[in-house]
Amino acid sequence: MDTNYAVGNPLAQKLWSAKLYHDVVGMSYFGKFIGSGQDSLFQLKNETKKDAGDRITIGLRQLLTGDGIQGDSTLEGNEEPLVTYSDNVFLDQLRHAVRSNGKMSEQRVPFSVREEIRMGLTDWWTERLEISAANQLVGNTAQADTRYTGNQATIAPSRLVCGGGHSTEASLSATTTHAIKLSDIDRAVALAKEPTSAGVPRIRPINIDGKKYWVAFLHPWAIQQMRADASTAGNFFDIQKAQLTGGKISDNPILTGGEFIHNGCIVHEWNYLPTIAGAPNSGAASAFRRGAVCGAQSLAVAVGQNGSPNKMDWNEEMFDYGNKLGVEAGMIFGVKKTVFNSNDFGVVTLSGYAPAPA
Fold first, then answer.
1. Residue 48 and residue 90 in contact, taking contact as beta carbons nearer than 8 Å
2. CATH code of domain 10-61+81-148+299-338
3. What is the pTM of this model?
4. What pLDDT, on the 0 to 100 scale, is given for residue 305?
5. How many CB atoms lie within 10 A of CB 170?
6. What is the Cα–Cα distance from 352 to 225, expressed in whole angstroms?
């Protein structure tokens, strides 16, 4: 005999909430980049016991820069103070719900309305977290609704590389010479390794099978521009040939899910990346897309719910004298790009011409 958890059963709420959270994170593209360690690309902050509207404080210690003392010279009085910075990830509650039309409507279809509601909420939550992560990572200040930015305002990029050798989006024009090219990824990686301004931290690569990598995210239309560039030496097709010649690299999903690897940077395609926040020199802003080259701890993902396995709410109620089933799914969470001392800690933002394919 099958085990059935009836509507309103407290065990059903725990079972379905845990299943929903597992499906949402598992189905999202950015979910495979989340980890709890400091070497994770996107770091999960789940040690909190916070309520809705609270925050998690993340600390950063700067590298020591003192000269040190040689020989028997006096060290006392020449100690170097620690320099630390902090960033706050705000948590808030976001909810959504679905209600059936009634028992007669459910009788007409050959599937479980309850299960379809779960799948619908899974799709909704998956897309909402994708959009929030993408908007936060590239600093999409054009989106002011925090329901689409991880429950907190976005912050404009402090490190920006634009197509065509430019450094501002206002200089971009509607031409393929201002598309994001491999040389722009090279510029971003160089800035990640060695910033040009004092006080700006180097971006730490992540470790995969003993090798150091950065991870880049580009919109499908930006990738299409790269595919169309067959004239530049060392172009997309040359890289693909080299990777095929090299054979299998790793089973790590961060590697196997990438489009290609260039200059120690694994390039991934992510269709939720937004358009630019400002106006270009020519053309519509919708024809330009942002991307990112990321290192460790570039994004913080915080989850409330007292750190329990049931990180999402699942509440079922009957309406209209028990005729209509309603299901609410909510989560207390926050998604934020890490910023210390007014500098992006783990990301160099890319921006370039990427119109819709004709």
1. no
2. 3.30.2400
3. 0.85
4. 64
5. 11
6. 10
